[in-house]
Amino acid sequence: MIAGRGRQRIRPPRRGLHGDEVDFENTWATIEAAFREIHTKNASKLSYEELYRHAYRIVLKKKGEDLYHNVHEFERKWLSSEVRAAIQQLLSPNLLVDVQSLGGTTANERRVAGEKFLKGLKQAWGDHQVCMSMLADVLMYMDRVYCADHRRPSIFNAAMVLFRDEILRSPVSDHDARLLLGLLNHVILDQIQMERDGDVIDKHLIKSCVWMLEGLHEDETESEEQRLYNVSFEREYLDTSREFYKSESELLLRDSNAGAYCRHAQRRIYEEDERCKQTLLESTGPKIQKVVEDELIKNRIHELVEMESGVRYMIDNDRLEELNLVYDLNRRVDEKKSELTRAIQKRIVDMGTDVNNDAIAASQAPAPAPAPVPAPAADPADKNKKVAQEKSINQQTVAAIKWVDDVLTLKDKFDRIWRDSFEADGLLQQAVTRSFADFINSPTFPRSSEYISLFIDENMKKGIKGKTEMEIDAVLEKAIILLRYVQDKDLFERYYKKHLCRRLLMNKSISNEVEKQMISKMKIELGNNFTLKLEAMFKDMTISEELTAGFKRHVEGLGEKDPKRIDLNINVLTSMTWSLETIGGTVEDGEGRPRCNFPTAVEKVKRGFEKYYNEKHSGRQLTWLANMGSADIRATFKKVQQKDGSFKERRHELNVPTYGMVILLLFNDLPADQHLTFEEIQAQTNIPAPDLIRNLQSLAVAPKTRILIKEPMSKDVKPTDKFFFNEGFNGKFVKIKVGVISSGNKVESDRERRETEKKNDDSRQFCIEAAVVRIMKQRKELSHQQLILETLSQLAGQFKPEVNMVKKRIESLIEREYLERIDGAKVDSYRYLA
User: CA quadruple 484, 488, 493, 498: dihedral positive or negative?
Assistant: First the structure.
C-alpha cells in the first residue's frame, strides 16, 4: 500500500464523455496489457489517468466483481508462471541437499547458494510490492467502492496473499514436494548456524526476508499471532536452537571447565540478543533468551556447580570473576539462586567444620617434647621441664586463639566473595550468615563461646599493645562479628565474666578504656541486660579504689605512723556480680574454700579494715579471698663477699601471690638449718592443697624464683617433702615477680566445661521461668503451643532453650501456683494466677 492513498479525493469524470455503455472485454484487455507492462518494468509510456478512468467506468457500470476477479486471476497466473519459474532457477543442488545430510557440501558452498536464493526471493517480493502499489493506484476506485461495499480485501492485500500461496507455499520442484517456505526457513536457519560457528553472513539480506515473513499471515484473520514469521519460522528457529544448545551444553560440560562454560554461556546469550536486533525481529529476543538460559543454565546449573572446576574449586582458589559469572547465570534463571546458595553454604560448613576439627586436634595433641640437653646440669634440665610445662598449659589456649583467627580469616574470605562476586546480594548474605552460625554452634563443637571469650582475653592482655585506636577498634569489631553468630550468648557471658574477673583482679588488662569500649559494643549489639553485671564489675573496682584511699587516710589520722605497718590495697567485690566460684577456685569437699590463717601482722591490718568497712556499711559480710591477691615483700639474704673484699647483704623485693606471702613469712622465725614439711605448712596456713602445691612449685621448683629449697628436688610436690629457706638465693634483679603456675585464663578441661554447662543450665531455668511469667502476666490466658513459641522467641537473643526444658519449667510454675491449666479447653491452655 502507498501511504496516504486512502485520503485522496476521487473526482468522477464528466457525464456523457464516453457514453453510457462500456465494452468490458476491450477495456480489460487494455488494462491487462498495461499491467503486464508494469510487471515487466516497461511502464514509462503508460497513462495512469487513462487507466484509472477505464477502471472507474467498469466499477461505475456495476462490473466491479468481474474486474476484481480478472485482476486477481492475472496476478495468480503471473506469480505461478513467471515469478515461480525465476525463483526455481535459483535453486542449486547445494541448496536442495537434504537437511539431515549436510556432509556432502561445505559451509561456504551452502552460504553462497543460500544467499543467491535469498537475494532472488527478496527481489521477487520487492518487485511484487512495487508493482502492486502501482496497480492499486490504478484500481483505487475499485478498492474504495467495490471492495468496501462487498467486504473484499483490497487488491494490494489480496495480491500479498497470492504471493504467499503461489510462491511460498509452492513446491520446490516437480520432483521435490518440499515447500519454498520450508526451504526459506531452512536456508535462514542454516545461515544462522554458520554465524554461530564463526562465519560471516549477510544479516541485512536475511532481515529483508524476515520482514517479508512478518508482513504475511498464516490465514485470513491477520492477527498478530498468525504472522507467517511467528507461525512458520520462529517456532522452527526456537526448536532447532533448543536442540543445538542442548547438545552444545553436553559437549562443554564434558570437555571444558566451569569458568570457560560460564563465559561461553554469557557470550551465547549476548550473541542471540544481537542476532534478534540485527538479523531477525526483536520480539524473538525474550523467547530465544529463555531457550538459551534453559538449555545452557537452568537444565545444567547443578552439573556446572558440582563440576571438579565448579564452585568449590573457585572458592578454594579465589576465582572471584568466575564466581561472579556463576552468580550472574544462576540469577537469570532463579531469583533465589538456589544451586549457588546450596553450594556456598555446603562449602562454608565444610571449611568451618575443618577449622573446628583442627582446633580439637590441636588442643588434644601431646605437647612437643623439649630438646635434649647435652650437659646433665640441674638448671638447664629444670628450665627445659618448665618450657615443656608451659607449652602443655598454653597449648589449648593457643588452639583457641587460632580457631578464632581461622574463623575470622574464613569470614573475610567469604565477605570478599559476597562483595566482589555476588554483588552484595541480600539473599546470599543471609545464607552465608546461616552457614557460619551452623558450624560455630555445631553440637560437635561446644567450645565456641569459650574460645571467643579467650580471644578477647588474649587481646586485652597482650594483643592490643602498641596498636592504634583504629586497629584496636578493628580487633574489637571482629570479636563482635563472631559474637553475632553465637547462639548461646548466656554461656559466652559466663565465660567473659570469668575472664574479665581475672583480668581486673590481677591487673592484667592493658587498658580499662578499651575494656569499657568493648562492653559498650556488646551493649549496642546485645542490649543492656547483657552488660549490666559487666558494668557493675567496673563500678566495684572504682569504689574499691576510693575505699583503699579512704582507709589510708583513716590510718594516717590514728596517730604516729608505724614504719613496720603493712600498706593495704583492697578490692571489695559484690558477690552477686562477680563470678565467685571462678575466683574462689574449686575445692575437693565442695563446702566452700577454707579460711586461710594469716600472719599476725597481716591479721591486724585485716581486722582494722573490717572495722573501718563495717562503720561505713552495716549489715554486710566480708569474705577474704586470699587466693586472688598479691603482696610485695622485702627479703634479705645473708652477706656475701663483694669484688672489693667487703661483705654485703643482698636485698630483693619479691612480688608474690598472697598465699606465697603467707608461706614465706613462716620461714621468718625459723632457724637457717631448720625446715618445714608440706604437711606442716598446710597445717599452719590452712591453704587448700592444690593452691599450696602450685605456690610451692613457684617458690621452690621454678629456676629463677627458688626462694625456698625443696628436698628431694623434683617437679612434683609430695606431703613428705621438706622445704628450707634458700640463704644463697641470688637473683639478677632487685625486683622479682613470682608467678603461680597455671594461674591465668586457659581453656577448661572436660570436667570443668561440664560443670560450667550445668551451672549455665541452672541459670537458664530461671530465665525461662521469668519469660513464661512475663508472657502470661500480659496475655492472662494462652494455649500451650503459643506459650512455647513465644517463650522461644523471647529467649532467642540469649540462647536457644530446649523445648523439654521449657515444658518442665511450665510444670514447675503450675506446681508453685503461678499458672493453672484451663479445664475443658479444646487445646491445652494455661491461665495466669495473680
Answer: negative
- Report d(CA 75, CA 39) in Å as an integer: 10
Alpha carbon of 707 to those of 26, 139, 377, 653, 673: distances in Å?
Answer: 144, 129, 20, 12, 15
pLDDT the model gives residue 645: 65
750/44 Cα distance (integer angstroms):
109
Give yes or no for a contact between 382 and 370, defined as CB atoms under 8 angstroms apart: no
Alpha-carbon span 320 to 416, nearest angstrom: 9
Task: Please state, as a whole number, how many other Cβ atoms lie within 10 Å of the Cβ of residue 101.
Answer: 8
Q: State residue 619 phi and psi, 5-degree precision.
A: 85, 5
Cα 568 to Cα 160, 548, 604, 606, 608: the distances in Å are 113, 7, 11, 9, 10
Hey, what amino acid is at 360? I
Lowest mean pLDDT among 115-119, 298-302, 660-664, 699-703: 699-703
Cβ atoms of residues 353 and 439 within 8 Å: yes
Task: Read off φ and ψ for residue 708, nearest 5 degrees.
Answer: -115, 160
**What is the Cα–Cα distance from 27 to 32, expressed in whole angstroms?**
9
- Cα 28 from Cα 50, distance rounded (Å): 13
The pTM of this model reads 0.77
Given a contact cutoff of 8 angstroms between Cβ atoms, the answer to whether 707 and 669 are in contact is no
Return the pLDDT at 707. 78
Closest C-alpha among 83, 79, 86, 22 to residue 55: 22
**Cell triple for residue 384?**
627445659
Number of alpha carbons in the 13 Å side-chain half-sphere of residue 610: 10
CA distances from 594 to 60, 583, 685 (A): 132, 14, 10
Reference 695, options 727, 742, 734; nearest CA is: 742
The answer to whether the bond into 368 is cis (omega within 30° of 0) is no
Q: Is 436 exposed, middle or buried (0-12, 13-18, 19+ CB in 10 A)?
A: buried
Tell me the β-bridge partners of 208: none
- Start-end of H helices in 625-711: 658-666, 678-685, 689-700
Q: How far apart are CA 35 and CA 65, in angstroms?
A: 18
Please state which of the ranges 43-47, 113-117, 206-210, 337-341 shows the lowest mean pLDDT: 43-47
CA 423 to chain centre: 11
Q: Which of 604, 632, 610 lies closest to 623 in space, CA to CA?
A: 610
Residue 423 grid coordinates: 554483588
| Least confidently predicted of 80-84, 506-510, 556-560, 788-792 | 556-560
| End-to-end Cα separation, the chain, in angstroms | 91
The C-alpha cell of 104 is what?
Answer: 556432502
- Mention every residue, 6+ apart, whose C-beta is less than 8 A from residue 758: none
Strands 722-725, 708-711: pairing is: antiparallel
| Cα separation, 712 vs 539, whole angstroms | 48
Please state the φ and ψ torsions of residue 173, each to the nearest 5 degrees: -160, 180
Rg from Cα positions in the chain:
49
223-241 residue pLDDT tens: 888 899 999 999 999 999 9
Find, among 199, 300, 290, 201, the residue nearest to 248 by Cα: 300
Going along the chain from its start, the domains and CATH numbers come out as: 18-179 (1.20.1310.10), 306-542 (no CATH), 629-737 (3.30.230.130), 750-832 (1.10.10.10)
> Is 819 strand, coil or helix?
strand
Q: Which residues contact 759 (CB under 8 A, 6 or more apart)?
A: 494, 581
Residues 759 and 581 sit within 8 Å (Cβ to Cβ): yes
**H helix intervals, 446-511:** 448-458, 469-485, 489-505
- Spatial contact of 723 and 666, defined as CB atoms under 8 Å apart: no
Q: How far is Cα 526 from Cα 449, in angstroms, rounded to an integer?
A: 15
What is the rounded CA–CA span in Å between residue 421 and residue 411? Answer: 15
Question: How far apart are the C-alpha atoms of 404 and 396, rounded to whole Å?
Answer: 13
